[in-house]
Design goal:
Length: 461
């Protein structure tokens, strides 16, 4: 990339200050001629670009010298430079709002129904450990994760609550489950037996939840084969069936027929287990949508994920429960300029200045979850007002437009480097939501909240 930026015909350091001596001349690695287009090219580097490559080499050598490195700076002072001063883009998670959402969910399901807070994918990008602790402090009793490493992260942060991995991990990971007291979801007899035998070898129990496939066809024992499965594994004394669950494919959809078919199959499977003398343990099925919409399927425990973070799983739930989004995305203006009429902005120059606009740059891009598909289709908020994001969103930066013409009584805005901008969140009456972005992209907000966790520092407020 850097080499391509050097225009053809660039003749190296010919114009450099007198007294400069190329680094390689002293170490004798490369002939001095390599610094000009006429010289011997470096191997693999086109001669026209040779000077650029050598320039980078010189730069790296300077920084490798002990007197030029971090050794001269107090490491404690370096550490104290906050994440938001290292980089002017960050997310904020309001744990008070997570607490509010958890409390609302608890109230919604009422007494006698436990809540498993689903904190997979780093708490949907909100930070698994802090969100798990907040949820547990506000009424959740169980945690759900997707992988063993997510469970271990919670255990290492001293989270004590029961943790269920929501699928069946590889058999090779069984020692980790037992060592960290993390329960797997099980659906193959082979896994169940191996797990039981590993536990037995240490004279401990092998607790698990049975996953039942009632129609989503993702994981689980088929609803009409549950008794057969139990008969195959139940001989093992270490195995401990702590819970039985299924997962809905369409709890968030307006059409409910498929949902009811799944519910019916689950009830039949549970009934068959009871008849055959198997205790299903804690019965659970409901994700956020089902938790909010269908009290009939609360059973012993519900498993909300998205709702905990304040995002509605579907339109229907908006009037049914008061959820508030916990995540907001922030940045500060890193550069700003007047762009004359008809000049372009960003890769492709697709956006053209209409004149009388100030273009402001923000240091976040698609590597930070600011999806490129949003280019020119989302707004940012500054001083309570919305401004159009313009030009293609780059990997690490994006731009927005401030119209400098005055309309009526509107106060003119004069953006400066360092001014704070809201990319997702609410300021006064202006609001940009993950829902808006998801609709624009034809995806769901789950994907966006996870995306914004990729690289930006996260602040808890
Ligand atoms: C992710 C997940 C949930 C939570 O789903 P939401 O729609 O975020 O509430 C519940 N159960 C299982 C099995 C899951 O995989």
């Amino acid at each position: 990339m850097a080499a391509q930026d050097i225009p053809n015909g660039f003749t190296g350091f010919a114009n450099r200050k007198p007294g400069f001596e190329p680094a390689s001349a002293s170490v004798g690695r490369t002939p001095v001629g390599a610094y000009t287009t006429e010289g011997t090219p470096l191997s693999g580097v086109p001669s026209t670009y040779g000077s650029g490559a050598q320039g980078a080499f010189q730069y790296a050598r300077d920084h490798a010298r002990p007197d030029a490195g971090a050794a001269n700076f107090d490491p404690d002072k370096l550490r104290l430079i906050p994440a938001t001063d290292r980089r002017w883009a960050w997310t904020e998670v309001d744990l008070g709002v997570v607490r509010h959402n958890m409390t609302a969910l608890k109230q919604h399901v009422g007494h006698g129904v436990r809540v498993m807070a689903v904190v997979k994918a780093d708490g949907y990008g909100h930070g698994a450990v802090r969100c798990a602790k907040t949820a547990l402090n506000s009424g959740a009793e169980y945690l759900g994760v997707a992988t063993i490493d997510e469970a271990i992260e919670l255990r290492e942060a001293l989270v004590n609550a029961p943790i269920l991995v929501l699928s069946q991990p590889p058999m090779e990971a069984i020692p980790l489950l037992l060592a960290y007291k993390v329960m797997p979801s099980i659906y193959t007899p082979d896994f169940a037996i191996q797990y039981a035998e590993a536990a037995d070898a240490y004279s401990i129990r092998a607790p698990y939840h049975l996953a039942v496939n009632t129609g989503m066809n993702r994981i689980g024992v088929r609803h009409d084969e549950v008794v057969e499965f139990m008969s195959q594994v139940s001989f093992h004394r270490a195995l401990d069936l702590v819970g039985t669950f299924t997962h809905f494919a369409t709890a968030d959809a307006p059409e409910t027929l498929d949902f009811h078919i799944q519910t019916k199959r689950f009830l039949e499977a549970l009934q068959a287990m009871k008849v055959a003398g198997f205790d299903p343990g804690i019965i659970h099925a409901a994700n956020s949508a089902a938790t909010i919409r269908y009290p009939d399927v609360h059973f012993d425990m519900v498993r909300p994920g998205i709702a905990l973070y304040g995002l509605h799983p579907c339109q229907e739930t908006r009037t049914m429960i008061d959820l508030r989004p916990a995540l907001s995305v922030h940045a500060r203006i890193s550069d700003t300029r007047l762009v004359p009429m008809s000049e372009g902005v960003s890769y492709g120059l697709n956006y053209r200045s209409p004149g009388s606009v100030r273009i402001c740059t923000l240091p976040l891009g698609y590597a930070d979850g600011m999806r490129r598909g949003l280019s020119g289709r989302t707004d940012v908020i500054m001083e309570g007002r919305r401004f159009r994001q313009v030009g293609n969103i780059c990997m690490d930066q994006c731009m927005f437009e401030v119209d400098l013409r005055t309309y009526g009584t509107r106060r003119r805005i004069d953006p400066q480097i360092g001014d704070e901008v809201l990319i997702v969140g609410r300021q006064g009456d202006s609001i940009v939501t993950l829902d808006d972005m998801a609709n624009m992209l034809g995806t769901i907000h789950y994907e966006l909240s996870i995306g914004f966790a990729q690289r930006m520092p996260r602040l808890y407020v």
